UniProtKB/TrEMBL annotation, chains A, B:
GO molecular function, one term: transaminase activity
Family annotation (NCBIfam families): PRK06836.1 (NF005305)
UniProt KW keywords: Aminotransferase, Transferase
Domain Aminotransferase class I/classII large: 34-381
Cofactor(s) needed by this chain: pyridoxal 5'-phosphate
Designated name of the protein: Aminotransferase
Species: Marinisporobacter balticus
Pfam families to which the protein is assigned, alphabetical: Aminotran_1_2
Annotated family: Belongs to the class-I pyridoxal-phosphate-dependent aminotransferase family.
InterPro entries membership: Aminotransferase_I/II_large (IPR004839), NHTrfase_class1_PyrdxlP-BS (IPR004838), PyrdxlP-dep_Trfase (IPR015424), PyrdxlP-dep_Trfase_major (IPR015421), PyrdxlP-dep_Trfase_small (IPR015422)
EC assignment: 2.6.1.-
Length: 393, 393
């Protein structure tokens, strides 16, 4: 009666819903403070003061026409500000025409895939990866191919990448800092990747776009910096959101920026704006376009996230968990204590621990924890982890 | 290098862009007040005072967590309020589970089509119709079939509908008040349609959904009322937005409501929430969900629209234009003075009149005017229409 494909997806994801329901059941039974829910990446952080003040300024200004439609690409003054900020960071000349405001990064990725993909074309990415990428690519007739990474670092393996690139490869999707590992690929690795891609492009006479999904780019620790993919790759398309950097996840505000070095970039940007409309986004929410345009230099409190990372990483590794130390984002991706990560996560619920199996990220044998939660809950969870470890000894 | 399909669409729509560019050129040359731009449905009306005050209340409250993710279906308190408002209007029992908050009606329609359509299934609609319906249905593997209407009333012709329904018909998309005609189908017509559909459903052993795209439902004149499709059709799905009723077009806020009479409605609503996520909308913008939930009884100034409709209808018919008098929305859809509506619209630009050809709505020989513009412009345009009519005498 409904879409068979969608109903199949619903059934497949029913175990995730079952887990959330189990979480809700546990919370009701034991009290919310006694359930350790590390399952969802819903940032606890409030927007920075500057964002709150800017929002007030716009709302109190009673400016006429503030909530009307604008061009499908968004307000040009906001796009110009974002372009100049990226230009400064990357050294690549950009202006408003290269930027399209979007309904978050999820909206932006769908707009990019719709604009780029012909039937059967492939998008490569590196496991573990955000599982929705499969659906986003499939929505527009493409095929996602996830390549394994080096388990010691979760960095791409260029020999595997070389074999993975085919004449059908339309794009390579890079997510740094990575969800779920928190890893930032090194500039050297990315530069070597650029050389490899250029070689394959000339071998196959194709163009391969580098898509950077970078909603966590501002959430980095230890003075790390995310390398500028615009600076490294000619055919770079940046997809970003303010969900994490400004604590605005529910407001759905982000952007796409296409490098001015892309051949026919104007045609591409027209296609992006058209797809923003035809996919039903129409335009990014008006008020928050204005707000983010005025607060590009603002950032949520990173120290709070760092404190959580340090505490959890220290305690979990002390308990014997193997884990690559995250350099950004707000996730840990430790190795499960048995090979079957789904079974492991199920057994963790006995101690009121809600985790997500690595299988959900194309990387079985691991589990993800979101530490964008209250610090007190993290502290209290350690005793539960101790019991969990005890069970597997 | 990019999606061939998208580039083809871009080229096809290039004459529209050319017209807009011509409009901008004319504005620059003659001054904005001397160009009569009736081309875009971007409501001039500001949000009602209650909406503005509610927005201020939320922003000044400094409530924590206001901008975070919520469930993909939206805030349950807001959904419950919408459900109860629709229940009161239709007599059909509804609760929060039947309502999914969306990124406007455009987002809502895409979510509905994704959730319903299997490859090759058909969606019927009535011409003239909002041309984006083609893309929305095509995005999800379906096929839009537009049926002609009675040119004297622009109401559906049930004999044509009967022939149009096939075993592949998954849904019938109804838009009242209609864009571009402003026509509201009568309750009698809709009830007869229901009988016909029931007969065809049992003939083919299928389920046919009635999709009501009703962003103009609150913009009606002369004490007209839009019949409740929830009350008339068992398999009704309402798609609505606050773009026009509350003047919030740029903020992208709307909803889907599925009738509790639909078999397996819970499964359908789970599918809708899933598709809201997987299509990249994730959730409707958080702040404006809260705002519309508190202002469901508010409405933009309808008298202003009525004044425009009356003035334009009176003057254009006096000048000899044939036109069905709109009962709602903010469009006029008169007959062009020659059969070739695209040529007609091109020649109108000579008098600085920007109109949209009926061909863009699957109905050649007519043109659309959006009268959601400043009244002074409408007044000044009459002299230009006089000259245009003179040219075709």
């Amino acid at each position: 009666m409904f879409s068979e494909k969608v109903i199949t997806s619903l059934n497949k994801s029913s175990w995730i819903r079952a887990m959330f329901e189990e979480g809700a059941r546990l919370s009701q039974k034991y009290g919310e403070e006694n359930v350790y829910d590390f399952s969802i990446g819903n940032p606890y952080a409030e927007p920075p003061l500057k964002v709150v003040e800017t929002l007030k300024k716009y709302i109190l200004s009673d400016e006429k026409g503030m909530h009307r439609y604008m061009s499908n690409a968004g307000f040009s003054d906001v796009r110009e500000k974002i372009a100049k900020s990226l230009e400064k960071e990357s050294g690549v000349a950009l202006n408003a025409n290269h930027v399209i405001m979007t309904v978050g990064a999820a909206g932006g990725l769908n707009v990019v895939f719709k604009s780029l993909l012909n039937p059967g074309e492939e998008v490569l990415t590196f496991a573990p990866y955000f599982v929705e990428y499969n659906t986003y690519v499939d929505n527009h007739g493409g095929k996602l191919v996830a390549l394994p990474t080096d388990p010691a670092t979760f960095e791409p393996d260029l020999a595997i990448l070389e074999k993975g690139i085919t004449p059908k490869t339309k794009a390579i999707l890079i997510n740094i800092p990575n969800n779920p590992t928190g890893v930032i690929y090194s500039e050297e690795k990315l530069k070597a990747m650029d050389q490899l891609i250029k070689r394959k492009e000339s071998e196959y006479n194709t163009t391969i776009f580098i898509l950077s999904d970078q909603p966590y780019a501002e959430i980095v620790y230890d003075h790390m910096k995310v390398p500028s993919l615009l600076a490294i790759f000619d055919n770079a398309i940046i997809v970003n959101s303010f969900s994490k950097s400004l604590g605005l996840a529910g407001e759905r505000i982000g952007y796409i920026a296409a490098s001015s070095r892309i051949k026919d970039v104007d045609l591409l940007c027209n296609a992006l704006a058209l797809c923003n409309r035809t996919l039903g986004f129409v335009n990014a929410p008006a008020l928050f376009q204005k707000v983010v345009g005025d607060t590009l230099d603002a950032k949520v409190d990173i120290e709070g996230y760092k404190k959580r990372r340090d505490f959890l990483y220290e305690h979990l590794t002390k308990l014997g968990f193997e884990c690559v130390k995250p350099q950004g984002a707000f996730y840990l991706f430790p190795k499960a204590l048995i090979a079957d990560d789904i079974e492991f996560v199920k057994r963790a619920t006995k101690y009121n621990l809600l985790l997500v199996p690595g299988s959900g990220f194309g990387c079985p044998g691991y589990f993800r924890m979101s530490y964008c939660v209250k610090f007190g809950m993290i502290e209290r969870s350690i005793a539960a982890f101790e019991k969990l470890v005890e069970e597997f000894k």
